[in-house]
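User: Hey, quick favor. My workstation is busy. Could you predict this chain's structure for me?
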Amino acid sequence: MRIFALETDIEKIKARFLHAGESEVLTTRFHLLSLLFAVIPEFIATVVLTAIFIVGYIYEWPMAWVGGVTFGFWFLFIFSRMIKSLIDWMFDFIMITTDKVLMVDQTSIFKREIKPIHLENIGGVSTETQFWDIFRFGSLRLHLKEGLGGQDLTKKYVPYAGRVAGILSDVVTAYQRRQPSQQKPATGGFAPAPKTAQPKVVTVG
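Assistant: No problem, here it is.
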C-alpha cells in the first residue's frame, strides 16, 4: 500500500530496482531492539507527562488546561517520534543483488530515501559488534571507493551482520571476476561470458 511517500509493500520497491539479468541475493531488515531502544526516550517522556497530569489532578490545577497542554505536547513531539521509529523498523531494509546494494530508509509517510550502490563502487565491507554480540546483531559498514569521496555508509542493528558482510563480500568478488569477460580481448571479438549458477535468495531477520 502506498501512503504518500511511504511504500508498505517492500516487494514493489525491490521489483522496481531489479533489472534484467540481475538477481536478488539477500534481503535483511533490522533487529527488533532497534525499535525498542529508539522509543525508550519517548517512553520516559510519556511517564513524566503522565506524572505531571497526576500531580495536577491531586493539587486541583485547571485540568482542561493541564490535560490539553500535556496531551498536545505528547502528540506533537512524542507520539510522532514513536511512529517514525515504528516505520523505520517495519519498512527499512537492505537488499543485496548481483549488481548492487539497495539501502531503503523510510522515516515517515512524507519522506523516503533509497540509495542504490553499485558493486563497483564498494571498496570494502566491515562489521562491528554491538552490546557484546549478545543479541546477534551489529553494525554493517560499506567503505566506498575514493571516487565517491571515500566515505563510509553504516547501518546498525543488522541481524547477523558478520554473515551479511560475508555474503556481500562474496558477491562483490564474483562481480569483479565477471568484469574481464565483458571487455574486448586483444585478439579481437568478445570473449564469451562464463556460465554462473543463479544465486540463492537469502532473507535475514
